[in-house]
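Ticket #4471: structure output looks truncated?

Reporter: J.K.
Steps to reproduce: submitted the chain below (646 residues) through the standard prediction queue, then opened the result file.
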Amino acid sequence: MKKLFIFLLFSIFTFTNSIFAEQIYSDEAMEMMDDHVKRSELLKVPLPKINRIIKDFDRYKDYRTNVMANNWHYTNYVWKEEIDGKILTKEFCVNVISKFKVPTTPTIKEKVFKRCLNALMDYALINLDGGIKMFEEIILNITTSEKDYWVYKKSGKDNFNPRDYNLWGVLSPIITFYAVNYNQFNYTDKQHAIIQKYFKDKAMIDRLDRDNNRRRTKLCPIDKPMKLSGKKHKVNNCGSVRLRFASAELALAIVMQDKELWAKALWDLDYVLSMTNNEGFFVPLSAKGCKALGYTWDTSKLFSMHVELLNLANFNLLDYKTRHGKTLSEAYEVLFKQYNDITISKHIAKKGIGAYSCGTKPFKTHQKHLVYEFGGKKLYEEALEENWIPNKDDYINWSIRFVTEKHPEWLKGKFTPHEIKVFPWLSQYYYVQAFEIFNANIMSEGENLWIKKLSEKPKDYEKKIAKAQITEEISEPMKENFTIFNVENGIFKLKSNNVNFLSNSNPIKPKKQKEDQLYKSFIKGNLINEVDKKVKLKEVLVYKRKLDTNDQILVIYIGEEPGEDAITPLFRHRENIQKKCGTRFLNQWGWMSFISVTNNENFAKNQQCHYDYFKETNDVEALELFESVLGGTSSILKYLKENLKS
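Returned output as attached by the reporter:
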């Protein structure tokens, strides 16, 4: 009798668990049922039981406001930019975004919409609380409007339709931002319910089967990715739009605890990952011809968002074997190879899908692809000066969980995620970086590499790193206090700004001058301090750095190669300074910057780094010259302006 009872109990237990383990497929998955769908572990992942994306919001907020914001790109344009005779203020942009003011054919209105989005995402980075309030208003406007503005519209032309592309291209990152910051929105339960119903209802019916009014008839060839054709297939159906769409569905499903939406999200993700071929290349974004490199950069970031969201369900997407036999980790490995040399995928890039503006065909060298991505040689050179060319440190940021689990050796010498280089840009693909989610959650995930690393350091080590973190190119933590600047109301003013420059010849204008250079000239003379000590300044080429701010920056040529007519005492320290302080204020062409006034903390930290370097050397001559030029910055700038004003 006892054995019978145990048997019945076991039978009930087994039956109950079979109900809980019941597989929920989306309609699309059931329609396309095949051997892969049946065995796909991804499609069986259960919905996470906790309805939040961020485990430690204080950590998330601290990183965004105290680390990312201090390492961000220029944001002076935010709410001040003027396009088509209109200033893109907060109020103006709330209206443009809420009412989805995007044309059906490419016009200036599309640019206005995109620039408003750029301002919104940057604003929410440098001012998270203000950004959340603005998103709060926009999301409520979108979801409660009597007229639904976020709908498809035909253009009547066989051409790219910005409205169709941007509908889910933009709604997706908005939804993800909402889900990530869910508890910070000041909505009532009723408002949350309205918002979630609006987004879910839209997502559940959309198959992403439109293609910008072009006459393509087929969805993507998930069975044979290399058959993808720009003429036959609706490419956005399996490219960046569906990747964004799937992550938005996953995030919203977690917040809503909605199994139906979760199942659809898993299918959308599995579908798009099926476009990874048997070599490990993600075909849709590798097929972008002359634009292939930039699109490939985004692939890591898009993959990583899904890796983080699936991790909340205790599913390691990195080890998932996609339809054609490659794991996602293997696809990451291929991406890192492409970042070093995009021409390894030229057999895919030659498809030239969506690259008509640059001639469709891939460039012959990786370098030419790189120059194109930054808008030509001049802008590429400026990007080099600003240290904006992506490198392995950036790739690690984009792929942080992959690197943590598969290449921990790349993290040698780093003890917290805060020490990973910040990637200082968002894009219309995502308004929250995957790295932010990883950083906010990793310390709450139990035993892992970062817990182990942190245990090797003092308890307050991570806080110290967060405070000392400076611009992405500075490798060593700096002193918290600025010794060469007085700081007041966010303005950094040089303390020793009392050296006078006295010229002993007329300035000579060079033949070439770039747009970012003001009052460029060859000058020579003496730098004289308060005790009348003179330091000779041999003939050098200088200019004032042109910025959209009131920063006072003098740029001086100290030489690029040995034997040039350069300022030798400074030049001989060129490589060591670059190693310590990066290339922002001493680039590879030998231009060195000096600041007397700035409101940019990163600029001030970089200048402090240069000063600290010379202080620590035993080169008295170099230190004296550096201090004299730095102290004479205002005097030289004044001399240039007065003598070269046109």
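Triage note (M.O.): checked the attachment and the full token line is present. DSSP finds 27 helices and nine strands in the chain.
Status: closed, working as intended.
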